[in-house]
Amino acid sequence: MIDQSLMSDMLSPFWVSIKLACVTTLCLLLFATPIAYWLAKPSRIKARGRLKVLLMGIITMPLVLPPTVIGFYLLLLLSPSVGIGKWLSEHNISPLIFTFEGLVIGSIIYSLPFYIQPVYAQFLRIPQSVTEVAHLLEPSRMRRFMKVALPQARVGIILGSLVSFAHTIGEFGVVLMIGGSISGETKVVSIAIYEQVEALNYEAAHMMSGILIIMGVVMVALIASVSRISQRS
């Protein structure tokens, strides 16, 4: 039997992981959706088109780089002696490393391509005729984006949100580098499992891993369902 204190120690990382996944996904919805829309819009100016290609390459870097590399450079960037962390320190603002806010920043960067790609692909699928009619009927770019583009891309947005949420739940390298293992603050479930294995507490590791497997199966089923809807539309 697992005692009450150990059960509490097991549930806390799940709460931190779910909260991190929710906040990260919400931030991506608000800020990455307009970026995906801008990237998907055709550009007549060559320099702007090249800029989009370069930006897309930067966004997709987390797909090919090890998480520890991204976490290492984020750790340097947010540390009090370099970059953003130095600026925060000079202005008497609390540092972001080893905080939940720092985890959110790292998770957004690491999950960005997993959200951008399906949303970008869905924006590309909007028929040219729909775009032309929208230009004729609605002069405001913001209203065209809100009333035409977003509804047309809703399947991609849902798919990107599910993938980003699932990806954030399973993060390890990035969150370990910039968040450490502070109970109730930065210790996510992947780090908690690693610590239980190190302590040879396989029973707790089995239980936590089993819950993650169940969550993963549910998320994969949802993603597959949304993908089928996307293919039919």
From TrEMBL:
Residues 14-224 form the ABC transmembrane type-1 domain. The keyword Membrane applies. It comes from the Bacteria. Keywords: Cell inner membrane, Cell membrane, Membrane, Molybdenum, Transmembrane, Transmembrane helix, Transport. Gene3D superfamilies: MetI-like (1.10.3720.10). The keyword Transmembrane applies. Its main location: membrane. It is a multi-pass membrane protein. One of its GO terms (cellular component) is plasma membrane. SUPFAM superfamilies: MetI-like (SSF161098). Part of the binding-protein-dependent transport system for molybdenum; probably responsible for the translocation of the substrate across the membrane. The chain crosses the membrane at residues 14-39, 51-76, 96-116, 153-178, 204-226. It is found in: Cell inner membrane; Cell membrane. Belongs to the binding-protein-dependent transport system permease family. CysTW subfamily. InterPro entries: MetI-like, MetI-like_sf, ModB_ABC. GO terms for molecular function: molybdate ion transmembrane transporter activity. CDD domains: TM_PBP2 (cd06261). Signal peptide: none annotated. This is Molybdenum transport system permease. NCBIfam families: modB_ABC (TIGR02141).
